[in-house]
What does this fold into?
Amino acid sequence: MPFARLARATTPTCHIGLGLAAVGRPGYITLGRDHDLGADRSVAALRARTHELLDAAYAQGVRYVDAARSYGRSEEFLAGWLAAHPEIDDVVVGSKWGYTYTAEWTTDAERHEVKDHSLETYERQRAETAALLGDRLDLYQIHSVTPDSPALTDKNLHARLAEAAAQGVSVGFSTSGPAQADAIRAALAVTVDGEPLFRTVQSTYNLLETSAAPALAEAHDAGLTVIVKEGMANGRLAEEHAPPELRAVARETGLGCDAVALAVILRQPWAGVVLSGAATVAQLTSNLHAPAVDLDEGQRERLAALAEDPRAYWERRGQLPWH
It folds into this structure.
């Protein structure tokens, strides 16, 4: 499995990955985006920003990069960076299929992405990903599986995914919504020829949304690598938006709210890779302080009290505007 390469890494940040959702397209639902990106959202500007982030991430020990077909031009930007650095062969590359980007590089589109977990969409997007990333792709994930997703029951799709796995691409899935735990457990039961299909799971987990934790522990125990996304709750845990208790604990540690929030995730025994969704090098550098955060039991208890009802959390997330 490609993530075995991460286990051999020696930097303290090797289990923090870089997600490209925030920089592969001009619009996203992260708070503070206007400040982070400024007015220039051109393709050239975001390509340069992505390459700058990848340079900084690699230099500081990050070895996993996460893209998706629906993240605008994220795969294209990543492919360009990899081509410019042929000497780099130890980065694990993951992408996702199942959503189609439809905003046409605008921030005010009626629909920014369309979800479709059909076999036809997989075939089309797999070819699109292959045209950009070729054999650099290590992991291909079904994007945002929910309990009612046809991807959980489509045997023909499972057979095609198993073929990709036999050819060396690890197969995984990501989850979203208040029923993440149900989706994870359903996916764990998917087999092809008696063997489990999925090798990784990527789920939302943060100080405000902790409901998937028991299922993620089960996935880890079943041998899957757990990747955590949205550790900053789409900006709700960043300094200017963070709950007072998080800001207080951050002051006590002498580090940022982001480092504290990500540190809590890194310390979960089932967490394999925790994604940074940084849009600036300064944010990334601050995120990478997470392994240095030392929290005592009292601080951990205060932060645990921030958890929200998952339905309330996802309802609020669904109301966040595309900036």
Q: What stands out?
A: The longest helix spans residues 43-59. Residues 46 and 81 are 13 Å apart (CA to CA). The longest strand covers residues 139-145. The chain has a mean pLDDT of 95.
